[in-house]
Please model this.
Amino acid sequence: MHKLTISVAELLGRPGRYRDIDISEPLAGVAGELASLTGEPVSGRLRLESVVEGVLVTGRITASARFQCARCLKGVTETVEADLCELFTGPGHGADADAYRMPGTEIALEPILVDAVALAFPLRPLCSPGCKGLCARCGADLNTEPCACPTDEIDPR
Model:
């Protein structure tokens, strides 16, 4: 059994029962255009709670991610955090588009962790809020050096 596949047999059919688990596992293949995981384990505390429809997974996870600044392209490593609240539905329950399927008595946590971490990545990561970026003409990093490129004159009309 995969470490992120958890048996929930003792919870099924017993609404209100729950179990808390701690996770600390690396996730592979989580990357965006300007962000990716560092390879450090994703960690957090999750609650698996039996509900009428199946099992509700809630909690908070943290992961170390490597970002490339959208303005100056400098690499930055930061911690991302994500809150989870996902439903796993069992056989016989309606196909909810927002729910994950639970074909038997086990739930696979990896898909919800991958989704949560990927959604926690910023769309335009910045090395700092005041990042000046790169010169569009010469490519100089405007955070570290001034640029000698001429500025275009604005047409006064």
